[in-house]
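User: Is it possible to get a 3D structure for a protein together with its bound compound? The compound here is 6-O-phosphono-beta-D-glucopyranose. I've pasted both below.
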Amino acid sequence: ELKDDTIIIVLGASGDLAKKKHIVIAELTELPIPACDVVIAPPSQTFPALFGLFKMGYLPKDVHIIGYARTKMDEVEYHKRLTSNLKNPDNDPEVSAKIEEFKKLSTYIAGSYEDTGAFKELNKHLEEVENKYTAKSRNRLFYLALPPSVFIPVAKHLRVNCYASGVNRIIIEKPFGKDSASSRELLGSLKEHWTEDETFRIDHYLGKEMVKNMLVLRFANVAFSSGWDKNSISNVQITFKEPFGTEGRGGYFDEFGIIRDVLQNHLLQVLSILTMERPVSFSAEDIRDEKVKVLRAIPPIEHGDTLLGQYVAANGKPGYLDDETVPYNSVCPTFAATTLWINNPRWEGVPFILKAGKALNEAKVEIRIQYKDVTQGIFKDISRNELVIRIQPTESIYLKLNTKTPGLSTRAVPIEMDLTYKRRFSDSKIPEAYESLILDALKGDHSNFVRDDELDVAWKIFTPILHWIEGKNGPAPKPLQYPYGSRGPKELDPFIHKYGYRRSDNL
Ligand code: BG6
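Assistant: Yes, that's possible. Here is the predicted structure of the complex:
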């Protein structure tokens, strides 16, 4: 349930949600440049998401939003930054009025991330706000939009100095470590201060509409649930493509690489929901129990099941190594395709290819489930069925089927049954992932957040391959080159075909 008297505290609040997110955060937090762009993405989403919820009337009735960061600034400056990224392209007066209201419930306080006194001050400020607006009970949601270097001290200070008498919750974002050992260490340190029940680990892919739809699609449709296994399905691809490179953010990216940035978290989360057994109920624990169970059936990725790439200059765009913030000889992958296997009766032998890349030819995230061939006999050259779930852009689901060409011919042609959300649900607004997740955290619903043991199994699957890529056990492999703006390394097609994927002509 949503408690009316909750306040939200955004730590690392910049409010200025500029394109070059990392620079802004570094500047505002006055920290050494944070470790990577992955931590940086969230703050740019936080305030627009909070505003989106506010505009739709989903925030608690007496909500107040308090920003906290190191930079000293007055309220005018803070509000300027806060609103700079709130969209109102048509200057709609209603939205403008909402923005003004939103400003009124947003205050800012500057302070250090290490100093007890500063957190005591923050607490005083929170109590003042609570006494004025929400004094019935004191519930606080802390959102850590901070680089990992200060996660722990801040989490500790909040627990010691800013813990309220009501419900306290903390939202944190990846990176949760760099491998099994570092993730466990981070998890352990956080657990000294915050319980699992109070902790909400965001993987924003779990807030995306099409990912959330998967439970319904799978378990509310016999048509799908009955053939959802190795008997019917030949191979599955989960693909993430971005059309831009690291552009000036390479220094941060280089520490992590595409596997940590996208595969180990976002794509693996999608995979687990796609493949888990039906949960006993829709409760957060039942869902996450099933996710953990299927992830535990996945052995660590083999070198031979991996293809790595790095983009080079092309189409007037710079290569990864041209980025001055990247070491000249970096072998950090900006593209990776890895094949995972699930050793359980449902999925044994079915390859799940996760692939992700920066600086590719398009922006697209999708799941492509390719069914097996029909048994030979009456048909020749029949395309395989495919179920495609387009996560973004243009959310849609389409099923490739064969049908007889209308008319006197008996020839079969592949067609698509197409559910494009914009057309079918033209009146519905699809919420942003962060809107959906912040609302869940306010309600205390953990279903779409990553549990500690889930994170641990996820790292187990990826840690050996990451150590191999980083040359921890021998020479580091050299990634294959691909031109900026291409589909990826040319070796990708043979790689996918090796796992049984057959390209069809029309899609
Ligand atoms: C972030 C990654 O987690 O996800 C970024 O760190 C990536 O590198 C982003 O661009 C993609 O998110 P979305 O919602 O735009 O697909």
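The CA atoms of residues 280 and 286 lie 6 Å apart. The first strand starts at residue 6 and ends at 11.
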